[in-house]
Known about the structure:
This protein has three domains: 9-48; 57-133, 2-Layer Sandwich (Ribosomal Protein S8, Chain: A, domain 1); 139-315, Methane Monooxygenase Hydroxylase, Chain G, domain 1 (Up-down Bundle), CATH 1.20.58. The protein contains eleven helices and ten strands. The protein has helices at 22-27, 67-80, 105-113, 142-166, 169-173, 175-196, 204-231, 237-258, 262-282, 288-297, 299-315, and strands spanning 9-11, 15-17, 37-41, 44-48, 57-61, 84-88, 93-96, 101-104, 119-124, 128-133. Strand 5 (57-61), helix 2 (67-80) and strand 6 form a beta-alpha-beta unit. The chain is flat, with a radius of gyration of 24 Å. It starts with 8 loop residues before the first strand and ends with a helix.
Amino acid sequence: MVNIKRKVIQIANSTQLISLPRKWSQKYGIKKGDEIEVEENGSKLVIETERSQESGNIEVDITGADRDFLLFLIRSLYIKGYNEIKLVFNDPLIDHHRLNKKVTVISEVHIEMNRLTGIEVIQQHENFCILKVISESSIKDFDVILRRLFLLVNDASDDLVNGVIKNDKYLIGTLEEKHNTITKFMASGLRLLNKYGHPDHKNTVLYWLIIECLDNITDILKENARDILKLNIKISKNCENILRRIHQSLIYYYDFFYKFDLKLVEKISTERYGILEDIKKLSKKMSQNELILVTSMERIIEQILDMKVARIGMQY
């Protein structure tokens, strides 16, 4: 934050003017006749524009990269705010380590496009492709995006828990597609925060942290869905109870985020310590696969802890 002093200019009897900082106006492309929003906040005036600092275009040579690097590169450049991304490569094939095989660059680019909103492949050639953002959300959409993100993560958690309890492999298998949908909202929300900042500027970083935690939770759910199907994991009542409580902790946090209440903070804390204690007590009664599952899912309550800290910080 930069503090700048401005002198007040008196125009006629009832109008007073102050000038906008030139660097700020140039950064956001403010021109004569443009409208900006001015919010009164006690002794402060908050001046905002929906215009962002344009990141423009970028070209990256991905020769020698693996599949994971490619996907995360595209996603990070999208989140950073670039509007056009050119990927150059000498070899049309890249390593997919999880599947232990070669895959084409273009096929993986299209897979990542399905996980992002408003960006398309506009040119595709033998040794390069160009991705372009063709539609953009407004920062005014952020709160809707965040709520939708919460609901999608909660639904994914519910489906995984019910799927493993009922041994419903189809329901468990839907976690892959749910992950892709959640990634769309996650990346869109982070792109908006990066380009514009949250309207409540002092909380921008805390909103970013919460979205990152929701993204981590989604990855945990997806990884466990894959393991359940691969290992054909069946669970006991002890394991079922722990999984249900982890899911319930997510619901408690969602309620707490939208209604700050110290009783909900206590519920989240009590549930966390109870889950950790039960895992210790019951670990010897679980099969090896069950123990792998609950210790992996346990990571979710640590993500909830980080989100709780962020939400408390937002309140004050």
